[in-house]
Amino acid sequence: MPAILGEIGPAAERAIPALLRGIAHTNLLVRHNAVVALGRIHAQPELVVPELIKCFDDKEAFVRAEAAGALGAFGKEAQSAVPALLELRRNEALRPGPASGKAAIMFTGFVVASSWGASPSPSFNADVVGCSMEALNQIDSAAAAKADLK
Questions:
Q1: What is the pLDDT of residues 119-128, one digit of tens each?
Q2: What H or E segment, with its residue span, contains residue 130?
């Protein structure tokens, strides 16, 4: 599981190319776990930050939320993500709520269980907004305050 690499932290930096491929995988859980690991490894921001920003277009809310959280882990090294985080927050407010009622149970960044196998379709818009706000505060608290997000 790619997220386990994140537990190793920066020493797992050699896995970054494979994890970057993982965030584009068709399997939801592979994408999710790759994003989690990239945030926990938090190395090579010049390479990783732009790819995490692309995850804001993922159809699954909890991948978008984890991408925001992963960017927050980079702190000031993810300064280039501030405009995208502000846009993510605005866009999430416009997204429709869950149509299917499906949900995944999350625990510390790992998908622990899902009654729908490998492709649940949760819509955790509030979690995405919350994660984007927290990431903004970690990256640039002045920008967060200016946007009245603090």
A1: 334 444 558 8
A2: helix 125-139
